Each structure stands twice: as structure tokens, then as C-alpha cells.
Amino acid sequence: MSFFDLVDFDDHEQVVFCSDKETGLKAIIAVHNTALGPAAGGCRFWDYANDEAALTDVLRLSRGMTYKNAMAGLKLGGGKAVIIGDPKTLKSPELFKAFGKAVNNIAGRYYTAEDVNITTSDMATVNQVTDYVAGLDGKSGNPAPFTALGTFLGIKAAVKFKLGKDDLTGVKVAVQGLGSVGYDLCKKLHAAGAELVVTDINPMALEKAAAEFNATVVGLDDIYSQDVDVYSPCALGASINDGTISQLKASIIAGCANNQLAEARHDQILKDKSILYVPDYVINAGGIINVALEIYPEPYCEKQATKLVERIYDTLMNVFEKAKAEDKPTGIVADEIARAIIAKGRN
Ligand code: NAD
């Protein structure tokens, strides 16, 4: 296998393989691009089928962070880390300290944070041996409300662009997933006069949404075919696929979930069907924006974080307008804008 010929290798600046026999640590840290600043992105703990799958994941995720941070207007590059193995059996304070040492060895080119299967308390252990950690308890706090704010503003931008409406009164939104972000988003949508249709695997969350937001509850598979204006994926990745696109009646897709399109080609398919797809990594950047301000030399400031999150509205309007003018899918246009920002940073 030639590493540099891998499909997911995208001129990553640095890829570090870390191991520590005593604690069982096997990790990969990928620094994709630091043109705009030190790389930042979470660390994921996952029992990958094999090491190649872990490498593929970290290469893709770190590249995604470069684009996300650039589009969010942050002075940060993109990076990501994966710890390989079953978190249930492998997690220990010593393992996280060994990981922290590996992060420290990169000397500030990469800032880590929690991601799938890693808690803020795990990151506090990492923080015992390195300062290059963000998203710690007692600092910027829970990112979900900031992600919800950005997603709410992204929906407003899409409704304005696609439906010509300045407000959300009477706009019908189908929300898939009422977790940390989805619930907060529903609260904002309800307060703005939107009509909600919701689904979740958690019956308690559904009862709450019905009682508090007068939301209509539907089955898991019925969420796609609802007669609504906006479909808002806030649970899983890849919910936009060949099987679901054909069911959609919504003319807008705008939600906080990561990696919403099952395959890149679905961007073009949505455009062909006149469905406005709001690129996931642009609309859901509120959380990373909040965390990022912990990394900046200036002290964390909630007001500044909120101001930066509010820019998501204009950033998305720019994407929609450019996509329309150039007759291109929105995902492709977002990537082009991100690449231009990164190139400018490099120069
Ligand atoms: P969460 O785990 O708090 O919520 C997910 C919700 O989805 C839960 O209520 C869960 O019961 C529900 N769910 C799971 N499977 C489902 C299914 N098949 N159908 C319907 N509902 C289902 O997660 P979250 O923090 O709210 O994040 C939601 C999504 O947004 C994830 O994709 C996450 O990666 C992404 N995201 C979150 C943040 C953040 O700040 N938390 C930032 C960026 C992106």
C-alpha cells in the first residue's frame, strides 16, 4: 500500500501514528492543513474493523475540519485524531495521558477535543499532560446550544432564499432527532412560529416535544415523506440517500447532523430536484466556533462566540447565491469557497 496514493490522502501536512504498549494506546493524529492556524478537531474512540478503516476515517475527518473551520471564519486549520479499539475495555486514565503526550509532541500544531465515545472528563485527563485541548468543562461549555443557534439561522436563511419569507411563521419543519441540538432547535423554531413534525427513537423526547411545542409525532421512517417545507436531519449521518430522496416533499434540507449526504453525487441529485441542500458543515459549525474561542490567545468570550455563530446566516446566503448564479450544487460551491479561503490564508 502506498500511503500517498490513498484515495483519502489529500496532501495532509502531517499524519502521526502513536502507540503505547503499556496502556494499549493505538492512535492516529492527522493534521490536514494549517494555512489558517493550528489544526483543531475532536478525537474519536472507535473499534474500527481494521487499521486501514481508522486511517481512512481520520484522513477524511481532518480534511472536513479544514473546510468547516475555514467556512466558519476561524483562524484554525483542520485536524482530527482517532484512538483505535473498544472504548468499553480500553479506556483508562493512563491511556488518555499517553494520548496527551502524543498531542503534546506535535507542539501546538493540533488541538484536540472530545468526539464520539470521549467525554469532557476524558479530555480533562488528556489536559493533565498537554495544554493543546479545547472544549473543557468550566471553559466554553456545552457546544450544543451554539450548534442549535447556527442551525436555526441556517434554516431562516434557506427559507428566505427558497421561499422568499422573512420569518418562520407557519413554515413546516420535520425534525429528525430531538437530542442536545434537535431539542434546542425545536424550541427556537416553535418560538419563531414554525409548525413542527418530529421523530426520535426516544419516546420521552417525543412526548416532551408534543407537549411543549405542539409538535406532531411521526414514525421513524415516516419523517421523510411529510408534507413540509424543511426536512431537518438532526440525528444520524447519511440520511439523505437514494431511498429517502425519492420520498422527500420538502424543498429545503437544513439540519445539524454531520455527513448528511450518503454519497457526494446526492448533492447534484438534490439540485436536479430543486431541493435546496444547506451544506452540513456550514450550518452546523456553531459548536466548533464556540470551542475555537477557547484556543484563541484572547480569553473565551460568549458574546464573541454568538456573534461569530450569527455570521452563518450570511455565509449560507453567499453559498446559495453563488450556487444559483453558477448553476451548481450547494455542496460543491461551499467546498469551492472554503478552498479559496484556505488558499488566501496560505498566501
Ligand atoms: P444527541 O446524541 O444528543 O442526539 C441525537 C438524537 O437522535 C437523540 O435524541 C437520539 O435518540 C436520536 N436518534 C438516534 N437515532 C435516531 C433515528 N434513527 N431516528 C430518529 N432519531 C434518532 O446528538 P446531538 O449532539 O444533538 O447531535 C445531533 C447530530 O448533530 C449528530 O449527527 C452530531 O454529529 C451533529 N452535530 C452536533 C454538534 C453538537 O454541538 N452537539 C455539532 C455539530 C454536529
Automatic annotation (TrEMBL):
Classification via Pfam families: ELFV_dehydrog, ELFV_dehydrog_N
- InterPro entries with a match to the protein in the record: Aminoacid_DH-like_N_sf, Glu/Leu/Phe/Val/Trp_DH, Glu/Leu/Phe/Val/Trp_DH_C, Glu/Leu/Phe/Val/Trp_DH_dimer, Glu/Leu/Phe/Val_DH_AS, Glu/Phe/Leu/Val/Trp_DH_bac/arc, NAD(P)-bd_dom_sf
Q: Which residues form the Glutamate/phenylalanine/leucine/valine/L-tryptophan dehydrogenase C-terminal domain?
A: 141-347
* Keywords per UniProt: NAD, Oxidoreductase
Q: Provide the function of this protein.
A: Catalyzes the reversible oxidative deamination of glutamate to alpha-ketoglutarate and ammonia.
Q: What PANTHER family does the database record attribute to this sequence?
A: LEUCINE DEHYDROGENASE, VALINE DEHYDROGENASE
Family to which this protein belongs: Belongs to the Glu/Leu/Phe/Val dehydrogenases family.
What's the name of the protein?
A: Leucine dehydrogenase
- Gene for this chain: ldh
